[in-house]
Design brief:
Radius of gyration: 26 Å
Number of domains: 1
Oligomer: single chain
Strand content: over 45%
Number of strands: 16
Shape: elongated
Distance between the termini: 68 Å
Number of helices: 1
């Protein structure tokens, strides 16, 4: 009687932990552009300010391990006018007094570096910057002026609009025989806030606009090589 021998094939499958694709060093870059304006819906002038926040962190065995964060104001500053050509605006130097009573020259960024904690939540990363209230912000001073006759309405109405919209603006408005001008100090918070949660995905890019386009944000997540 012949025995029929069938080869026995044993497959050895290596199953990697679910978190294997998350482990490594990561960098989240937040590029922001703010349209700072003093005025009304149809009559306004101001500046476009750009800034950047960089958050770097490590994930080891699926757990958040270490994080650091930095922020900076970009040198590219541009002026705008609505309607075009009516206002001449430019950044000027000034003094900013913080809640603690300390004085700084403008432009001033509250935190250029700060600690970062976080945790992995499913396929997302939850980041918690350690920032004292009210978070990170910058202060800038700019001047807008016009000789247009509509400047009378702009000079009288703009401070009220600023209060109604809850803007953190302090304006010194001056009216002469043929010129209408305002020197504006404005404070603007920047991302990240106290907590943010994003998909932990290499190559992730998101663009967000809020306040009717007055703020534009671009988030870029990348895996980076260990230093």
């Amino acid at each position: 009687m012949r025995l029929l021998l069938t080869p026995l094939i044993i497959l050895i499958i290596t199953i990697q932990p679910a978190y294997a694709g998350m482990d490594g060093r990561w960098r989240l870059v937040i590029d922001g552009a703010d349209q700072l304006e003093f005025g009304t819906q149809y009559l306004a002038g101001g500046l476009t300010m750009k800034w950047q926040s960089i958050l770097e962190f490590s994930v080891v065995n699926g757990q958040f391990e270490q994080g650091t964060a930095t922020a900076s104001l970009k040198p590219e500053i541009s002026a705008f006018s609505r309607p075009e050509g009516m206002f001449q605006c430019n950044q000027v130097t000034g003094t900013f007094a913080s809640r603690t009573g300390s004085s700084f020259s403008t432009p001033h960024l509250r935190y250029q570096a700060f600690p970062l904690t976080g945790k992995v939540v499913g396929e997302n990363i939850q980041l918690n910057p350690f920032l004292e209230y009210p978070g990170n912000y910058y202060a800038v001073m700019y001047r807008c002026q016009t000789g247009d006759e509509r400047g009378q309405f702009w000079a009288e109405r703009s401070p009220r609009v600023s209060r109604e919209l809850g803007k953190r603006q302090d304006a010194d408005v001056r009216i002469t025989a043929d010129q209408y001008s305002a020197r504006i100090k404005e404070i603007k918070t920047i991302a990240p806030g106290p907590m943010m949660e994003l998909p932990l995905r290499d190559g992730l890019e998101m663009t967000i606009e809020d306040n009717f386009g007055a703020r534009k944000l671009r988030y870029t997540m990348r895996r980076i090589a260990d230093q």
